[in-house]
Design brief:
This protein is mainly α. 74% of the residues lie in helices and 0% in strands. It contains eight helices and no strands.
Length: 234
Amino acid sequence: MAQDKKDKQSIVLQVYLSLYNTTQFIGWTYIFVQFMQHFFVHGEPLDTLWSRIGQATFFFQMLAVLEVIHAATGIVPSNALMTFLQVFGRSMIVAGAIEGTPTGQLSPGLPLAVFCWSLTEIFRYSYYVAHLLLPSVPSLLVWIRYTIFIPMYPCGFLGELLCSYWAQSYIRETGKWSVELPNRFNFSFSFFYFMWIMAICYMPLFPQMYLHMFAQRRKVLGRGAGQQKATKTH
């Protein structure tokens, strides 16, 4: 009886993770297609990019908060701290620096960040879906999933920093999301300084997260093609 219950729970989790990863795969594919059409089919300028992809990017990035819960609860064998840092950092850029400011939406870092995010996530989530639904993951997909981050992660990080920098002037001038004294809680908070602190703190964290990805790459690709097992299945 206990084993049957455990098996049912396992099936439910597998269905849930399959649906989650498939949803994210479809979402980021949509964002990538819209991005490519915006510049290379319609020839639209940068200042209208976010109006085209903003809602979808915001939604699917915020949906990734579930991955922190997955890792923290043990649903997937991911490093909870690394997952939190990655999801929180990008979510703050999307919600605070880009969605929250008109200047962030005009940053030259926006197309760089969106291109790197969407292309990386397409292969990451397709890898997870294949791992959950197929007997074995195609070796080419495994290689791409654990290789594409090498150029995309630093380029995406640069795009994020540029978006954050472009957002600073608007946040400073408007005091957006800041709390000033006096108030009934006797509490003050500067979102402007918070964004700067985040940017400064993430710079030394970047090499650690980047090297962590290389360690995952060595661990997975060292097993041999066609016999890969996911180290995490968000």
